[in-house]
Amino acid sequence: MNSKLLFPLMLLCTLLTTPAMFSQSSNSTRKQKTVNYNPNVNSPLTSSELALINEVYGNKTNTNVLSKPQRLKDIKNILRNRVEIKNIPNSSDQKPCTLLSEVPLMDYYVSDLQRDTNFNPQNFNPLKYLFNFNSYGSHMYRVDNTNYFIIIKSQHK
User: For the chain, N or C: smaller number of CB within 10 Å?
Assistant: First the structure.
């Protein structure tokens, strides 16, 4: 074979195989995060949880949530384990974060879904908002004009 062609051919083969080797090694070293559920997600829905789901999904509750076991489990996990509401009255302990009024409503199924005019931590419905529930990190939101902060905990541990 002509030596003038052999060197460019070897160089081309080397360049083509190098990215494949790097992508394979980076994929194998990347740590996979899994979703860990607390045992409480196996308990049936409470009537108040069902009311929160119905408020957001309306007449599509059965089709989009109740008939889908994994979706129902994920929603129970959100309602029972992943949303924390804290009152932080000391301004030096407060961190700047997104305001609740800046988070869009999840009004795909109920077009006239409304934001709460008065915030009550006991009956807050996190499903009403398009929080980033699938993020790898936790996120914090401030309820406008209050000292309440909503913490969305990551589902990945």
Answer: N
Phi, psi of 121 (to 5 degrees): -60, -25
Q: What share of the chain is helix, strand, coil (3-state, %, to 5)?
A: 50, 15, 40
* Closest to 80 measured CA to CA, from 100, 110, 52, 118: 52
E strands, 11-133, in order: 83-87, 98-99
Length of the chain: 157
One-letter amino acid for residue 82 of the chain: R
Q: Which residue has the tokens 């045992």?
A: 39
Average pLDDT score over residue span 125-141: 93
The predicted-structure confidence for 25-82, as pLDDT tens digits, reads as follows 444 445 566 788 999 999 999 999 999 999 999 999 999 999 999 999 999 999 999 9
The pLDDT tens digits of the residues spanning 82-102 come to 999 999 999 888 889 999 999
Chain centroid to CA 86: 19
Q: What's the maximum distance between 2 C-alpha atoms anywhere in the chain? A: 82
- Dihedral angle sign, alpha carbons of residues 43, 44, 46, 50: positive
Tokens 């029972």 correspond to 80
Chain-centroid distance, C-alpha 111: 22
